[in-house]
Design a protein that fits this description.
With 118 residues, this protein is an all-alpha fold. The chain has one domain (21-111). It is 72% helix and 0% strand. It is built from 6 helices and no strands. It is elongated. The protein starts with a helix and ends with a helix.
Amino acid sequence: MSIADALADAGAKPAGKRPYFFANPEVERVLAVTMAVVQELAVTRARLDTLERVLEAQGGLDRAQIERFEPGAEAAAERGLWLQEYLSRVLRIVQQEAEAATATGDVASEDVAVELRD
């Protein structure tokens, strides 16, 4: 997968405009970025817990080995790609708002709800 493909996938959005829950768009943006970081941390903690449990069950590895580990070129490249994808996911709302500023024809879900209500 190329970096361009990875970034395109990370910034993908569902159909329609993003629903907003706060009157202040700056608050909404900070909340969206924070929740993206929270989600990523939760996934990372689950994977780390799995890794530790598997290693412990196999009688495997101590913390000093982990501290001394240095990734090779391939692992470093994979980590770099992951970091780019991660940052794209965390900052997705900023990207999507920039796209929405230039797009036409998207309908926000809250606009549909108001139209159905009225």
